[in-house]
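Each field is listed here:
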Amino acid sequence: MFHIIKNSTVKTISFSSVSGRLYRGLSSKPNPSEKDQQENDEKKVKQQKYQELEKLQHRPLYLDAQATTPMDPRVLDQMLPYMTHLYGNPHSRTHAFGWESEKAIEDAREKVAKLINADPKEIVFTSGATESNNIAVKGVGRFYKEKKKHVITTQTEHKCVLDSMRVLESEGLKVTYLPVKTNGLIDLKELESVLTPETSLCSIMMVNNEIGVRQPISEIGKLCRAKKVFFHTDAAQSVGKLPIDVNEMNIDLLSISGHKIYGPKGIGALYIRRRPRVRLDPIQTGGGQERNIRSGTVPTPLVVGLGAACEIAQQEFANDEKRVAQLAKRLIDGITKQCPHVILNGDPQARYAGCVNLSFAYVEGESLLMALKDIALSSGSACTSASLEPSYVLRAIGADEDIAHSSIRFGIGRFTTEAEVDYTIEKTVSHVTRLREMSPLWEMVQEGIDLKTIKWSQH
């Protein structure tokens, strides 16, 4: 896939290797009908286009939008001046170079705040969602630990939240790891039962980065507010993609990632509510920047990029939401109608459409990923997918180990095209069929044998 940038617009081109088998014998048909001739001509044009693109550069299609997104060229346009001639330190208060950088940062802060209906003073810039999550979880847990020694999270959170919780455990706090149901959603009654006067923080992500499940954030926020428990949500996968209002949803802390919303890498933000005030211990000390919560020189170009990405996300929201939903439906329908024994992981309704996690029974996920080398896909979180262990998220929803091992995550975004989705469907169905034909288990299933009734013996 290529993103060709010209005059601040993006043209996305996809390519594929088209098998010559599709075209064999077409020219040998006697007196082809007008329709056949038209189809033949169209296929030849497509084949020529694919061959031309392959000569230019072998690049896979990109369908891994949960790992990262390409930077929107409009974001880069706004960043460039602060990478060249507007290079002042925003904390230099004695000259114009510092003033113009400071103004750019405050303008960006307003854009980020507007996207989630917050006050600009409630936005703290960080290096990304991982740092935001660390500050929120460790900061609140440590500040209130003398009076409140209990925090809550779920078993399917991002690894940075789970690891931060384990740090708090090592410091003497009690952590409740809520299980999720088979659809990936928490049980609200179970959450309510573990909220106590000792609880300082509840951290539950808005959209899961592996299976796309969307938790009932408003209901969770309402429960936490009633029990006087601060509510933090990791919204890295949902800011700019789903409507968010921190006041209506009773959210007290919210983590944002720049590179998940077509902005630059290395920048994020943390929303921290002022009324009622959330207090926390900083995990990084220094010059006292960002309200003494996150010390260090604020990187003006990156902050400007995050602000621009948030502004564009707000402008493009309706169009993005509609396109992504249509493409996701096209992908799921295209694969499941041609491939039996395909499972959509997570709740089919309460989800972000752009994250499609499918398990292909009787196929090893790693083998399928290798076969689909001309499409950039993932078997789970980019932070942990290097491990050969089955996804802890899929294990948490009760997936069998073989199903967990056969999962592939398809990530659809703003620049994904219909042609790319169709190509992905074609290649996925083809390779799943081929890999299953090599599997003795698949052969047994085709013969009507229930594999669960077989007692396997070891020799």
About this structure: The two ends are 49 Å apart (CA to CA). Residues 50-68+317-446 form a domain with the Aspartate Aminotransferase, domain 1 fold (CATH 3.90.1150.10). The chain is about 40% helix and 15% strand. Confidence is low (pLDDT under 50) at residues 1-30, 381-385.
